[in-house]
Structures are given as C-alpha cells and as structure tokens.
Amino acid sequence: MRNVPDMPVLKWLDIPPLWLLLFAVLARIQATRLPVGVIDHPLVDLLAGLLLGGGLLLILVALVQLRQNRTTIIPHQPAQHMVSNGVFSRSRNPVYLGDTLVLTGLILHWSAWPSLVLVPLFMWVITDRFILAEESMLREKFGPQWDAWSDKTRRWI
Fold first, then answer.
1. Are 154 and 92 in contact (CB under 8 A)?
2. Is the dihedral of CA 15, 13, 124, 47 positive or negative?
3. Judging by beta carbons within 10 Å of its beta carbon (0-12, 13-18, 19+), is residue 85 exposed, middle or buried?
4. Could you tell me the pTM of the whole model?
5. Which residues contact 114 (CB under 8 A, 6 or more apart)?
6. Which residues form a coiled coil (predicted)?
7. pLDDT tens for residues 72-99?
C-alpha cells in the first residue's frame, strides 16, 4: 500500500508567493483587457519603482534574517525561534508586507487603477490564510515573549 502524505498536494500550493502571483495576474489582466487610461507621469513611475524595489528588498532582508536565526521561512511550519529584531521590530510580517508593496508597485506600473482594490483583498487573504495561524503558533510556543513583541509591534506596519 502506498504511503499517503498527511498534507494534500493542494496544501503545498497554498503559499503566499502563489497568492501574490494570482493577484498580480488578475491586475495584469485588468490592465491589458480593461485599461482605464495610462497616467504617464514620472512620479507614478518613481512610486511604482520604489514600491517594487522596496518590497523586494524588504522580503530579501526578512528572509535572510529568518535564516540567520535558524527558523523556518515556510508557512504552516512551526518556528524554531521567534525573531523580533531588525525588520521584525517594525512589522510582525515584513515578508507579507513586502509582497503587498510588490503587488501595489505592479498595479501602479501597469496603470491598473481599478486593481488597487486587490491590495486590501490580498492583505485579508494573507491574514486569514497565514498570519492568524502563524500568530497562534507563536503565541502558544513563545507565550510572554510573543505577548511583549505583539504588544509593541504592529501586524503590518
């Protein structure tokens, strides 16, 4: 008899980068199929670039920091250590915040203005599917250390 894994394949597909990709694809479809007018202004380009670059940099810094602290970067997995310094002293979820900045930057770059409504929807999906469970695991494992950190550090920014 075949050994069936505890986690179905679809659970492994339920990862934040795929959600980011889905929302970015939706924004791109809106930009190309239902364009609402391009705002060709250097400030919009600058803002889009800053959001994209800043988001990617934030993700990279947060992932490096997680690896340096020898804890998981994989959602749905329990953390070995709680990281509350560096970028994690400003946001409890800098990787997800970086994802949100990237999505917003892409939407601005593509002039997909109606797709800006996807940003709070993306944040809600990430909170519901990942953050709440991660916070629960951290609270259970680290108790008072978690409480002190979560009291002084916001979930997003």
1. yes
2. positive
3. exposed
4. 0.90
5. 30, 34, 36
6. none
7. 998 888 999 999 999 999 999 999 999 9
Closest CA to 83 of 72, 74, 99: 72
CA distance 73 to 94: 12
Per-residue model confidence (pLDDT) at position 6 = 55
Kindly report the three-state secondary structure assignment for every residue of 27-54. HHHHHHHCCCCCCCCHHHHHHHHHHHHH
Residues 6 or more apart whose Cβ sits within 8 Å of residue 142: 82
User: How do the domains of the chain map onto residue ranges?
Assistant: 39-152
Non-local CB neighbours of 149 within 8 Å, separated by 6+ positions: 82, 84, 92
114-156, pLDDT tens digit by residue? 999 999 999 999 999 999 999 999 999 999 999 999 999 999 9
Measured at the CA of 111, the angle between CA 109 and CA 114, to 5 degrees, comes to 125
- Specify the residue for token string 């944040």: 123
Q: What is the rounded distance in angstroms from the CA atom of residue 78 to the CA atom of residue 98? A: 21
CA nearest to 36, candidates 131, 86, 110, 125:
110
